[in-house]
Amino acid sequence: WSEAIKKDLTRRAFFKVYPQLLAMTKGRVLKWKKLREDARLEARRNFKNLAHDSLFLAGVMIYWGEGDKNPKNPVRISNIDPSLLRIFVKFLQIICKLPSSKIKAHLTLYPDLSESKCKEYWVPQVGIKSMFFNKTQFIKGRHKTKRLSYGICSVAASDVQLKEKILTWIECFAKHL
User: 169: which residues sit within 8 A by CB, 6+ positions away?
Assistant: First the structure.
């Protein structure tokens, strides 16, 4: 008897709350759409002023060549060249005005590499503090002799508006070349 009452109450509550849930979802979608559009407009406005800055050019070109282009993913590049990653981190900090605490890194290593030694190598090279390194991923390589000495380092920042700006800057470069 109580199960039947419970099911009936659950069904009634669902039909009562369902329109509110739909309205909240619609509002959230509109909010994110506006944030993305605002970011694209700001990026287009700033493009002309930034286009002559060498760090801006370097950062956008690095992302164009190495970055994750999927708008749903974070701003992220992976590479074995610490200089390239260091320039990109400076681009995020100086041009994009992203606080250092929002920039994360992680390593992809072979099982025979020491995580602590590799982290010791990457931390000063890239310019990200050790505490901002996320969990290291270990992979099995295909070649037994062709190994990377310090693995692959990835730099990422989860910021939807920043992702939209960078993708818009790439689009602006493509149109103006």
Answer: 43, 47, 50, 56, 60
What pTM, to 2 d.p., does this model score? Answer: 0.82
Report the side by side order of strands in the sheet with 75-79.
75-79, 152-157, 104-109, 137-138
Give the Cα separation of 47 and 57 in Å (integer).
10
- CA 140 – CA 112 distance, rounded (Å): 10
Q: Name the one residue in this structure whose structure tokens are 């009562």.
A: 16
170: tokens are 């790439």
How high is the mean pLDDT in each 10-residue block of the chain (177 residues)? Answer: 87 88 92 94 94 96 94 94 97 96 94 92 95 92 72 94 96 87
Crossing angle, helix 82-90 and helix 115-126, to 10 degrees? 50
Q: By C-alpha distance, which of 136, 127, 131 is closest to 90?
A: 127
Q: How many CB atoms lie within 10 A of CB 139?
A: 11
| Residues 92, 122: Cα–Cα separation, whole Å | 17
Give one DSSP letter per residue of 81-116, joined into a string.
-HHHHHHHHHIIIIIS---GGG-EEEEEE-TTS-HH
